[in-house]
Design the sequence.
């Protein structure tokens, strides 16, 4: 069973891999559904307020239409909180895999949920906490909440909501292990110990000699080792930043992502490495290089770690707009969570009114149906 075969069995491949078109369509659907829900909720509040005002003094106020976030504005605000997540995890000195998983949880959640419905600041904290548990780096919720200076309930309240948005799949396949494996192979090549692919007729000595000729040519093996170490370090930094802040995880496999990072920092070395894996006449090679170039282009487009002046101004505008178009029914996640717990306790104890219980059941079924409508059926094996 090849690495590719193993990856195709993962939930990341089956549920979280998209084409650019399907990814854009999903985000458009999410944005439209959220905007519709926000406007409906605001109209309900306006109607209630107007009726109350009319009952009191006979006047009637006309409500204004809500100016909702666009798809692009939603993406900018989510990207900003992904950066905030990275900064927070680095500040806490949590491992890289916790940081990477937390960012992917946030990005996955906002494929089918809008910042207008659930503010990223509230979801971000829970994403980090859930990532720590998933990546076997668990800290008590109390100690974690103390780092953020927030009540523990602020961390726990959105947890089920987040897991539901993740479709109860917590595994994230990162490109870090692949990069480490590739780096060890390159070091083995420099020592004359590496082996080429099954269809490559080259001895370890031939590979090392060929590697010394990769432009710019190395004077000796020591210089070649330094080159590999430099490429490895720079590629790893790309995986810890650019790969997390773009759609790379949704559009490419972990192997394609780490090879693209290596391609960016040392294209000649990356091409040599692939030449040791694929024969010159391989039909796959041109297609693979095209994919790597596309992925590398995406990594280059990643937002800067520190937004410049104009970007900060734009983010401030979007933040202000978001405060005016949030769904009023979803503002208090802690209160909503407590109400759901009370209903569950009453339902379990037989104390919940039959009509209310039926309403809750219909709401849960509708929520699940909306999730299915957004995601569609489970993907089968992909071709190509």
Sequence:
């Amino acid at each position: 069973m090849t690495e590719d075969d193993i990856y195709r069995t993962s939930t990341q491949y089956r549920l979280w891999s998209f084409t650019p078109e399907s990814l854009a369509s999903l985000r458009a659907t999410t944005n439209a559904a959220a905007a519709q829900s926000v406007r409906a909720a605001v109209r309900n509040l306006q109607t209630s307020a107007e009726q109350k005002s009319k009952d009191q003094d006979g006047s009637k106020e006309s409500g204004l239409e809500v100016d909702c976030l666009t798809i692009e504005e939603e993406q900018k605000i989510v990207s900003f909180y992904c950066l905030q997540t990275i900064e927070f995890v680095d500040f806490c000195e949590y491992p890289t895999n916790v940081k990477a998983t937390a960012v992917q949880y946030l990005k996955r959640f906002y494929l089918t949920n809008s910042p207008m419905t659930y503010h990223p600041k509230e979801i971000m904290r829970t994403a980090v906490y859930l990532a720590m548990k998933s990546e076997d780096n668990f800290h008590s919720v109390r100690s974690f909440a103390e780092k953020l200076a927030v009540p523990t309930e602020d961390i726990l309240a959105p947890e089920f909501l987040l897991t539901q948005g993740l479709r109860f799949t917590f595994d994230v396949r990162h490109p870090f292990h692949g990069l480490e494996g590739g780096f060890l192979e390159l070091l083995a090549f420099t020592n004359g110990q590496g082996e080429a692919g099954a269809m490559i007729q080259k001895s370890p000595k031939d590979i090392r000699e060929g590697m010394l000729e990769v432009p710019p040519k190395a004077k000796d093996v020591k210089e070649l080792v330094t080159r590999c170490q430099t490429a490895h370090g720079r590629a790893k930094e790309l995986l810890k930043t650019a790969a997390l802040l773009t759609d790379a995880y949704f559009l490419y496999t972990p192997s394609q992502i780490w090879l693209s990072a290596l391609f960016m920092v040392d294209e000649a070395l990356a091409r040599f490495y692939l030449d040791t894996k694929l024969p010159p006449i391989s039909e796959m090679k041109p297609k693979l290089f095209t994919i790597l170039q596309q992925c590398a282009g995406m990594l280059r487009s990643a937002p800067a770690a520190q937004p410049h002046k104009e970007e900060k101004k734009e983010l401030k505008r979007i933040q202000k707009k978001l405060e005016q178009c949030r769904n009023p029914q979803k503002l208090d996640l802690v209160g909503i969570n407590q109400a759901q717990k009370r209903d569950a306790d009453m339902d379990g104890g037989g104390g919940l009114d039959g009509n209310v219980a039926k309403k809750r059941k219909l709401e849960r079924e509708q929520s699940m149906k909306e999730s299915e409508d957004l995601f569609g059926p489970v993907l089968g094996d992909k071709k190509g």
